[in-house]
Amino acid sequence: MKFSLRRVLCLLAALLMLVFTLCACGGSSDKSTASSTPGSGNNSSEIVVKPNTPDVQEGSKYDPATWNPYATISDSIKGQTVRHATWGDPTTNESAVAYANFEADTGLKCEVFAVPQSGYPEHIKTKIAIGDAPDVFMTNEGNQSFPLTLEIAAPINRVSTVDLEDPIWDKSMLESTRLNGNIYGVNTIGTPHTGSNLVFFNKRLFEENGFKSPADYYAEGTWTWDNMLKCLKDIKALSTTDTVYYGAQLECDIFAGSVGASFTKYNFETDTFSSGINDPKLLSAFQWYSEAKSQGLLDGNINAFVQGRCGIIVRGTWGLKAVGYFQEMDPEDVGFTHLPSFEEGETSYVSSIYRVYGICEGAHHPDAAGYFIRYLLDPANYDLQNAFLTPEAGNFYYELTNRTADQKYFNFDAGLATLLGEDVKSAFYNNAMNSSPANMKQAFDSVSNKINTSVDLANKLVQDKIEADRRNYK
Fold first, then answer.
1. By CB distance 3.0 to 4.6 Å, which of 1, 85, 189, 200 could disulfide with 134?
2. What does the pLDDT look like over 287-298, one tens digit per residue?
């Protein structure tokens, strides 16, 4: 885990104070004064990161006390190398432990199949076409999202080494990837790899100025859009002629997801996309955004947040990780809580990234890949105590993500915009983001034809996939 200079200096200061205390006490020590490295999982409060776990009956085949899912790997696939299509380098983040131990635990090998994040499905389609397909793909956000990834996905239920009765699989996510009886992606209960959005706030800014924080509002049941606006105004009011303070940085589509609204919608039961442009809560979300923007409350960025001059950042769970957005900050300055509710008495959705893992079409080693996916997504194969900014951040990650698919809201606008050959802002959002609250409905109407076209293209993509797999997997 990387340490900021500030964190190192704080740690050295704490150690010196401890030495002086021991000397003053004649060598005796009080355990209550012990210090530890933030985020190490071994702090003075002894908080431990506890992942979500499946409910398994004692004595069942899947009882974790006795069952080893890798004990019966066939000799015919031992030694095969699974190629995992991803961007970045998972051997240098929290996945490093899983990557390092995979071969010793399974007799299989794995390697990174480097693919650019932008245009991820298109790059893999090119590789599939020349017979150089990776084995494992994943969905993400933007132009890496569902339904675009359907074009590179093989049915995972047809891979013999993937036991979908295994309680570790999140059954609600399995159902969300089901088309005509086939399943195209999985994730686990307790997965270290999923994306949900949340509110990060600069604890020091709120505490030192006596402001009620987002976590304070949430605790008293009043964390609403109105009170979020108040938080932004409180922080911006700190600005002086010498120092500018910013209320927040947030993306309006994430904000709208907290009330289950987006320009396009997908129904997992009927496998169909539709327009969401007439949803009154979508209108309310963009009107709130427009009003906050007009007051200069949304000009913040991550650099200003790290420097202590921005109150709130609305981002995904990567910010809770030790190697995430805020790794250079003192982790004790990073607060976090849920997205606000539309109004008091309502429960917000978890606005999430649709993250599942699957087997690529044309995979050379699909059976070995089935074992790799399970291993990669099993929290038991991670050093969770060092994977997060703090143990509290780790436990909040699991609280936030411990929801079924129907309690989360997945936004596929970017994927559908990509089908139009555009990015999501130019296709759908720009008019609304630059409109006044009074003119927001007209801004929505100006892109309704694009939305309808993208919906038609997405529904065709889904149906084409169903028909192709009917032919290929009779």
1. 85
2. 999 999 999 999
Q: Which amino acid is at 20?
A: F
pLDDT of residue 45: 57
Lowest pLDDT segment from 193-197, 223-227, 469-473 = 469-473
By CB atoms closer than 10 A (0-12, 13-18, 19+), residue 400 is buried
Q: 260-286 burial, b if ≥16 CB within 10 A, otherwise e? A: bbbbbbbebeebebeebbebeebbbbb
Give the count of beta carbons closer than 10 Å to the beta carbon of residue 79: 11
Q: Is pLDDT of 369 > 70?
A: yes
Q: Token pair for residue 384?
A: 């969770």
Largest CA distance in the chain: 81
Residue tagged 């339904």 (tokens): 147
pLDDT at position 1: 38
Average pLDDT over residues 19-43: 33
222 has pLDDT over 90? yes
Q: Is the pLDDT of residue 18 over 60?
A: no
pTM of the model: 0.88
pLDDT exceeds 50 at position 15: no
Q: What is the 3-state secondary structure (H, E, C) of the chain?
A: CCCCHHHHHHHHHHHHHHHHHHHHCCCCCCHHHCCCCCCCCCCCCCCCCCCCCCCCCCCCCCCCCCCCCCCCCCCCCCCCEEEEEECCCCCCCCCHHHHHHHHHHHCCEEEEEECCCCCHHHHHHHHHHCCCCCCEEECCCHHHCCCHHHHHEECHHHCCCCCCCCCCECHHHHHHCEECCEECCECECCCCCCEEEEEEEEHHHHHHCCCCCHHHHHHCCCCEHHHHHHHHHHHHCCCCCCCCCEEEECCHHHHHHCCCCCCEEEECCCCEEEECCCCHHHHHHHHHHHHHHHCCCCCCCHHHHHCCCEEEEEEEHHHHECCCCCCCCCHHHEEEECCCECCCCCCCCEEEECCCEEEECCCCCHHHHHHHHHHHCCHHHCCHHHCECCHHHHHHHHHHHCCCHHHEEECCHHHHHHHCCCCHHHHHHHHHHCCCHHHHHHHHHCCHHHHHHHHHHHHHHHHHHHHHHHHHCC
- Rounded Cα distance between 301 and 284, Å, is 24
| Alpha carbon distance 406, 332 (integer Å) | 33
- Domains of the chain plus CATH, in order, are 81-193+355-377 (3.40.190.10), 195-352+406-462 (3.40.190.10)
Asked whether residue 35 carries a pLDDT value surpassing 50, the answer given is no
